[in-house]
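Design review, sub-item: ligand-bound model
Attendees: FS, YL, KQ
YL presented the inputs for the zinc ion complex:
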Amino acid sequence: MHSLRFRAAILLTACAATATLSLRAQSSANLILTNGKIVTVDERFTIAQALAVRGDRIVAVGSNAEISRLADTSTRRIDLHGRTVVPGFIDNHMHLLRAATTWGRELRWDGVYSRKQAIDLLKARVQSAGRGQWVFSIGGWATAQFSDDPRPFTREELDRVAPDNPVALQESYYQIVLNSRALDDFGIRPGQPDPDDFIKGTIQRDATGRPTGIIKGDIPATRPVQARLPKIAAGELEASTRSLIADMNRAGLTTFGVPGCLPEPLQILRRLHQQNQLNLRVFCIEGPTTNTPEQVDAAIQQIRQMKPFQGDDYIDEIAFGESVYQPLHDPMFAVRSSPSADQLANWRRIATAIAEQGLSLQVHANLTGTIDAFLDQIEAINKIYPVRNLRWALAHLNQVNAAQLERMKKLGLYAAVHPWSVINGAIMQDGFGEASAADLSPLDLIQRSGITWGFGSDGSAANQYLPMTQLYYALTGKLPSGKVVMRHPIGREDALIAYTRKNAYFVFRENDIGSIQVGKLADVVALDRDYLTVPLEQIRDIKPVLTIVGGRVAYSADPEPPSRTASLR
Ligand SMILES: [Zn+2]
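KQ shared the predicted structure:
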């Protein structure tokens, strides 16, 4: 049943159609998609039936009849059979290139919402790895996402599944569970001191001194484990990167803001791009890491040399980030912060240099105390070097409040919103208490503030990366298991806009991506169900069936792509 709003939108499209058939559309199209529900996510949230592509751009959006006229015998036609099409998803903050260095060997549980299925996947991995070989996962899940049994994993449970393989399972950045073989491999043994490189107190032991298998203590506690896990060989990196890109396309993702573009995987992306095979757009957020005043001096010199925007629509460098001064980087599971004047002075020296150079900044700021302190600094910097048009963004913002959003808006700052509670909501309840955890992230306040904001996942370790899982959380306040953890849900249209059109501003490509409009790049995703009308409980399980990037089919659930000459009639 079509809502009145939907019918109004169709009428609107019909009126606007002559306008959308621009000069660009006067010769034939390479590709047309017809017979769909095209959710354009333009400024009026117009719904259309069909679209046409020439080269890598959209040349027309309109009715079936209008678009079909643009096809000739050489045009590839795709019949959408009524399916909903949305713009390619943009994730404004994903550690994509770091993920490329492990993806090919990792066990991933993104989108796995039953413990039974998770254990089956673990068993399969143990089988295929072979006796004695490592099996590991590096985050992107938490056991609270399992609807059948959300209890933590134990050493004993992993020993039953994998008696002969070392296993390390990292739950977000919260903790790592090791089985007995892994403990032994790492030299973590009863009656023996902890290995030197582990932070004191992070290796959990029972009353008798026997290690429980749990390593716990936020991000720093996970580092010695990751350092000891087997690395992907140089020769495997390209395959790992390709499988990562394929998984992103399968999830409907076409563009990323990427903090920390590691050189080796970036080199592979450049090569794929040269070969016309790159199906993701990657916009790097880069900058030196500083821990001391001396490093700040050096960083300021580097900032004066930085020259972003030397790339193109596929690979570019856009902003400084995501840390300005490392001692002020909020730990993921901290519940409060109190930045010192000393640390803030160093933070401000760097941020001032960034403003003076006219560079964009995206900075990790999560806790209320940190957000206030950074806003104080930015307000002072803004009086000397205005930041309004530089698209500075505070990132994560799980504990932002209405007053802070108001201050941000006055400064022209953007809000890069990365709700860690999508999978970590139950862990946050332990730390913050249930009531305060329910205010992380206050999406309705952010939406109502009128600030420019967009979604990021902060995958691949802190969080899962699937847009539909994040949208489910945004619309319901629920973990994938169905447990309510957040009390500030937003509407379907606003959430979709934050994952598409608004996010284009974060990567400086609002004229090229983020909505399905004439002149924009043809990045579109067809879904197996209608995001705008399915029951809320189904949002989590919506699957892309077709992902197109720059007019090229990057993913298709259909094993036989429609033939070039297939006729609609
Ligand atoms: Zn961060």
